[in-house]
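Morning!

This is the sequence you dropped in the shared folder:
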Amino acid sequence: MKSYNSGKYAELMARIYFRIKGYRILKKNHKGRLKMPAGEVDFIATKNKTVIFVEVKKRQTITKARYAIKPTQQKRIISAAKLFIKQNPRFQNYNIRFDAVLVKLPFKIIHIENAWQE
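The structure's back. C-alpha cells below.
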C-alpha cells in the first residue's frame, strides 16, 4: 500500500509541475479500452495545440525510473491515446506527444518531452 500511495503522490506532483509550466490537465488515470484492454495513461494534458499523454514513473533513482517504461507499455499508451483522440474529435487537429515524468521522492522531477514516438 505504501508504494501505491507514493506512486499516487508522484502523479499528483507531476500534475502540479505541469500546471505550473502552463499545461492544462484534461484527464487523469485515463483507461483506454475498446474491445481489448489498452494502457492506462497517468494523465493527459494540453498546451499550444498539442495533446500530451504522460506516464509518471517513481523509483528510488531517476536512472531506474528512466528505464521503467517498457516498449510494451508504450504501445498500450499509444493505443489508449488513439482511442482518446477518436472519442474526443475536438483534438483531431492537435499534435500528439508522449512524455515521461521521472520522480525520485521527495522532490526530484525530470520531465522528458517526446519520451517515445508512435
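Headline: Strands lie at 24-33, 37-47, 50-58, 95-104, 108-116.

More detail when I'm at my desk.
O.
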